[in-house]
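Thread: "does anyone have the structure for this chain?"

Original post by V.I.:
We have the sequence but no experimental structure in hand. Need at least a predicted one for the grant figures.
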Amino acid sequence: MWMTFWLAIGLSITASAQPSDLSPSEQYIEQWSDEAVYQMAVHGIPASITLAQGILESGNGQSQLALKSNNHFGIKCHGKWQGDRVYHDDDAEDECFRAYQNAAESFHDHSQFLKKTRYERLFELEPTDYKGWAKGLKKCGYATNPKYASKLIALINRYELESFDEEGLALAASREAFGEAKDATVELQKNTAREANGSGMNPNKTGEVLSGIRSMQMSENAIRYTLANAEDSYESLAEELDMMVWQLYRYNEVERKAKSAPYRPAAGEIVYLQPKRSQGRVNWLTLHEGESIWQASQRSGVSVKALVRKNRLSEANPHPPSGQLSLKWRITPEGKLPGWVRTIQGLSG
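Reply from O.Q.:
Generated one for you, tokens below.
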């Protein structure tokens, strides 16, 4: 049911074109959007700006500097640079540029570079104010081209790169929630252990707390959940747990129709009490025989929308042919993790 729903409203985020149908800039975006989103979540630089700068500075990753040294942002050596270097003609002949082992290092160094005092005023802007960031980069002297800001803005508008800023904010929120939930779990375990002797509560080794007949647990993906009993409905659970009914429907991605009967989860079914994440803690999830994408989403704690996008699912391709779902990264058209992920993690697929 929910596979059809997400395909109807969410496939705009899933690229259905094959690499041969994409322009060089679109191919660059396909390859590096996840990295730009990650950098935004960690460092606060708009993903749209990172992608636009990468496209412009590296010639879609095909410039001599990018191919020779994995330098996608035209960052020069400067006085304190201790890493590898190459020499390339730019504003002057034979200028020193930073060189990296792989392009992912270039993205990380770009984020670090923009944290210099010279650019600190940019971080006072809203993270979705890409126009302000583009103009600020030019004003702070990132590039000498007088049209640098307008070129960045044009690229962002043309390829709708601002959508990746929303993903960056979502991932940042997910990372923050993950940290808070992890801390809360540790504190919960400590408090439960202290209270167990005198209150009759039952702490188990996974941090589960039993109070009466309702078990509240924390998933591996740091999302609070409970397991449904045979007589439960979302309505009865909401009343028991002092929650709004819409929260349970939304958090578990179950469609709520005005005239339909209340949704009754099967006995033992996971019912999330917080939103699912945009990525998992491991790279892959192996699908069980006959398992739907929604069921895999409930099992992994990764939203259906995120699974659809990361795995390039479509109406014509509703399940991954490999039988595995990527939980962290958007796979290539060949069904593999991005090349830079495989390089860093030493993986073959």
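V.I.: this helps a lot. The chain has two domains: 19-167, 201-345.
O.Q.: and Confidence is low (pLDDT under 50) at residues 1-20, 195-212.
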